Amino acid sequence: MFQGSMVAMATPMHENGAIDEAGLARLVELHVENGTDAIVAVGTTGESATLDYDEHCDVMRQVVEIAADRIPIIGGTGANSTWEAEKLTRCAMEAGCAAALLVTPYYNKPTQEGLYQHFKHVADAVPLPQILYNVPGRTACDLLPDTVDRLADIPNIIGIKEASGNVDRAETLIAQCGDRLDLYCGEDPRNLALLLAGAKGCISVTANVAPDLMHRMCQAALDGEREEAERLDARLAALHKSLFVETNPIPVKWALCEMGLIGPGMRLPMTPLASQHHETVRQALLLAGVL
Length: 291
What we know:
Blueprint: E1 4-8, H1 21-33, E2 38-41, H2 53-67, E3 73-76, H3 82-95, E4 99-103, H4 112-125, E5 130-134, H5 136-139, H6 145-151, E6 157-162, H7 167-177, E7 182-185, H8 191-197, E8 201-204, H9 211-222, H10 226-242, H11 250-258, H12 278-288
Parallel strand pairs: 1-2, 1-8, 2-3, 3-4, 4-5, 5-6, 6-7, 7-8
């Protein structure tokens, strides 16, 4: 249903933490103009953990309205409460999102059966296409291939963002479930490897600051143009590393501010990028040719 470069878009904020609606519009236009294949609104990079329910729904609605059918919008609607995830997913559907991205329930550490029942409940309750999101490094919860295999039989579960960092795991998922759901890479340094292994795209932090490069790299890989994809990915390599020198989205929001696209605002417990990392991120932006 989706392929290519999908940006995990940052949520611009004023210095007091209020949502910056003008900044939001600038970012959406940036991605429309630079060929990004889809926008994920209010995912991890969008600081979903610190937006309240009304803000979460408002940002999804605003992004859909600004995009005006020029680019698909995927709403980040995961939660560690099944009923909250259902409500947010319903909100995404009512806002006009093309799909929802649901992270595994964090902190409460459900069993594999609990994970299956959680995702099944939301998919049964809300008839919107849904993408699973596995990122055990942030959630302390790992969605295993056998559970994904079961979930792949649910018609409106259409994909998985795999961010375990395990290429073998991703290849197993493609072999086991690839005829029923699409796999999207969730770790920028591994985008190219997984695209060449059969992933349909990536959900990327780096695409926030290098949308054109990321789109072209993904398209080259999907078209089987390996040398061109490798050339473009080499230009992105320093960004893939530097945008994680501190917890995401701290570095990428600093980078977007440095590029003049958004202000410096973010919400506690996230804090501004430490000064010793500024030059590292700036040099990566220069190497990619985006600053």
